[in-house]
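Quick one:
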Amino acid sequence: MALAQKISIRIDGEYVEAREGQTILEVARGGGKNIPTLCYLAGLTAAGACRLCMVEVSGVGRLMPACTTAVQDGMSVTTNSEKLARYRRMVLELLLTERNHFCSVCVSNGHCELQSMATRLGVSHVRYPYSYPVLPVDVSHAKFVLDHNRCILCTRCVRVCAEVEGAHVWDVGSRGIRSMLVSDMNQPWGDSKSCTSCGKCVQSCPTGALAEKGWAVEEMIKSNENISRLAVRRGVEA
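Output:
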């Protein structure tokens, strides 16, 4: 198989070597640029769900998602600007207001990517009204729990279950503000016939939405790096 053609792009004014087929996010991170993401997990298909990785591309009149935008020869990309910083803070604030994120009583408190990202990007308060939706907690599974209040609809669990485990348990049902994670045609997780109880979805979840039973506040530490390594390895073998 022929190697992809090498191309040259500029990221934040610096020339970076890339290959055709790579995304802006892949090239940027390979060059030491840390573009923030919540839905991206190396080895899984990029979804562009969280919109935190938006960047400016010279000559394009709108912001572009770095995780799904392929590089092109001569492309000039800005990954860090005041405009992008304002946009990313706004995205985080909207994520925090959409569901019920009470960190003080969450099993992932102190180990949550959403929480860490808010700290990193300087989100110390929220300017928008909270939705306070009435959302269920699914405790029907013998080993795991799904708390819709903490879900940010990043779809990592959907993708890792389909692409790595091959079980296709998870999907997103409904639309817009009513969108929710569903298992097996909207059945309780514990009634799922396709779930293998592998826990990959739990380990890939960036918040406390998916967790193992038996863990108290601040105890749920996840290893999505292991999930990412497994996903990358399976992709190479495929």
